[in-house]
Shikimate kinase
Amino acid sequence: MGGPRGGGSPRTGRLTAPVVVIGPMGAGKSSVGKRVAKALGVPFTDTDRVIVREHGPIPAIFATRGEPAFRELEADAVRDAVTTGGVVAVGGGAVTHAATRESLVGARIVLLTVSPEAVAERIAGSDRPLLADGGIDAWQTILDERAATYAELAHIVVDTSRRPMSRVVDEVVAWVRDGEPGTIDAPEHTGGTP
């Protein structure tokens, strides 16, 4: 993983490197990412929303074009979002695509984790294509397949299972500010490195 690039500070609404939020389905990537971006005063991009806006509903893409085609669209969306900068939330399976992983080089990567018990409530009634047959068991199988890639990419791991969203956001914001040059009165570093 490359180091931060560029210049600026979160106090001026710029980051030296994009912050990318990864993790399994239901971990809270979009919610956390949006709030972190707001706290830092930088743009936020949810790549799933970009795909839906440009190509239609994700379940329909999976049904008509298949997962490989979706992953190509996703890789393009991630590359564009990382180039734009700010905070980027990517889909749970984005890291399975080589081009997407390549786009993440140089980014600061936050892995959000969640327990199966906590995620079961969050994904109930979901239309997520990969969970259509199997629910929480399918979720666990998918997580097991991706866990090593998540761990390899992550610079910080934050669990969202039973913690208030505000605490999760504060921890990520503090970690980002701690690593940003030129930041004045940055909060104490609260995150660990896996």
Summary: The longest helix spans residues 135-153. The chain has one domain: 10-178.
